[in-house]
Amino acid sequence: MSAEPALLSLTEVAQAIAQKRFSSREVTKSCLDRIEQWQPRLNAFMAVEPDEALAAADAADAALAKGNARGALHGVPLAHKDMYYDAGKIVTCGSKIRRDFVATSTSTALQRLKDAGTIRLGSLQMVEFAYGPTGHNTHYGAVHNPWGLDHITGGSSSGSGSAVAARLTFAALGSDTGGSIRMPAHFCGVTGLKTTYGRISRAGAMPLSQSLDTVGPLARTALDCALLLGLMAGADPHDPTAAAEPVPDYVAATRESIKGLTIGVPSAFYVDDLDPEVERILDETISVLKREGANIVQVELPDQRQLTAAAQLVVAVEAAAFHKRWLIERPQDYGPQVLMRLQNGLAIPGVSYLEAMRWRGPALAAYLAAVAGTDAVIVPGAPVPAPTLAESDVGNGPGAEAVIQRLTRFTRPVNYLGLPSLAIPSGFTKTGLPVGMQVIGRSFDEAMLLRIGAAFQRATDFHERVPEPA
Amino acid sequence: MTKPTPKEIKAIADVAGVPVDAEVATRVANSIGPAFEGFAAIAGTLPFDLEPASFVVVQTTKVSK
Question: Does residue B37 sit at the A interface (CB-CB below 8 Å)?
Fold first, then answer.
C-alpha cells in the first residue's frame, strides 16, 4: 500500500479508512497537499475548501471511532464537476452567468454519494455550461492536462479528468451529453463511465440536453466506477426519466473473467482516419483482450455519421431552449464558442428536431441488430491523442465546428443511442500522452463493460501510472 | 432536408424571439450545415406511426447475445 494516501484507488482508500489504517483527516490532508502542489499548474479546481474538508474529515473520524460509519465511502474526500447542485454552495456551471448561483437543493447523485459517507474537497472546473469538448473556458481559463501541461484535458468534464489523473481526488462526477466523460478519460488516462440514459438520476444536475444528458463517474479503475455506479443508480422520484431497471452488483461483475466473451471491432468509421499511435494502441488493446480469452470479431455497424448528425440536431435545439432567456437577456455574458453553439439551435425547425427524436428508436434497434452476436464493442475514445491547448483554441472561428466534430466523432453516436460506454486507459504515445478505448455495451448492461474493463486492468498497468509534476 | 441559408436562419431566429445579425447567421449556417446534410437521408422517410417514445421501448426490451 502506498505511504501517500492520495495515491490509493477509491476502493483501497475506503477500505483503509474503514479499517483505520488511515484516518479521514490523513487522507484529506494528503489530497489537499497534492491540490496545493498541482492546482497552479492544472487549474482543475473551481474552488478548494480545505478548512471545511478537514472539519468534515474530523467529524467522520469521530463517527467511525464511535462505530458509526455512514456507508461504503465513509470519510472519503471527493470533488465533482461544478454543475451538481449542493445546497448552500455556489455552483457556477463553469459560467459567468451563474458565477454567484447558490444551489437550494442537492442533486440526487451527489446526495447518494454523501449518504455513503463522502466529504467535499471543493468543486471542479468544467467547460461553460458543459457545452464544449476541449476544456477551454473563457471565464475561468483552460484546464491543463497533467500528462502534458500544454495539452487539453478534453471536455466538458475537464477538471474531473485532470484532477483524477493527478490524484487530487479519488473520483469525480462528470456528465456526458456528447462525450464529456469519455473524452477527458481518453485524454487524461483515467477510467470514465458514460452510463445508459436513465441509469442515474439527473435531478439537480445542470441540464444541457434532457434527451442526451447522462451522469457518470471518472475514477482510477473500473472497480472504482463499479462501486460508485452501484451507489448512485436507480429510480428517483425527483427525475421521472431515471429508470426503474434493477441495479445489479456491479462490483461482483468486475471479478468475473472475460474468457469466452465476444467483443466486436467495427469494420469502418471508428477505425478510419486514426492517428497512427491511436491505431497502434487499439491493436494492442485487442491483443490483450484476446490473451485474456475474449473472442474478437468484426462488426458492420449502421452509418454512424447519421447518428452524429441526429445527435447534433437534438442537443442544439434542447440547449438553445434551456438557454433562451439568457440568450435574450445576457448574450454578452457567454464565451464566444458557447454562444455560437447555442445560437445554432435557433436555426433548426421543430420538425427537424422531432424527426431526429423519432428516429432514435429505429436507430437503436438497427445498432443492436448489428451487434447481436457480441457482448460489447471496442472503439477508440477519440481519433487522436490530446491536441495542444493552442491548436484547439478555436473560439467561434470558421474552423471551430470542424475541430469539435473531429474530437467528438467517436462519442456522439453513443449518446444518441443512449448506450453505456466505459473509457479505459489503454496506452501511451511516444511523447507520453495517454490514449483510451471505449467499450460500448447494451442498454443497462454496465456490468458487462465493468467486467471487461476490470479484466483489462488486471492485465495492464496503464491505469496505475501517475503523472509527475513538471 | 436542405441546410438553411443565412437569410433563412435570420428569419427563423427572429421568429424564435432571439434575433441574430447577418454575420451570426452566416456563422450558424456554416456550423449547423453538416448536421442537416448528415441527416438528409433520414429526413422525410420516417413512417407515420413512429413516435419518439419508441426509443424507450427499444431501450428497455431485453436483448441478449
Answer: yes
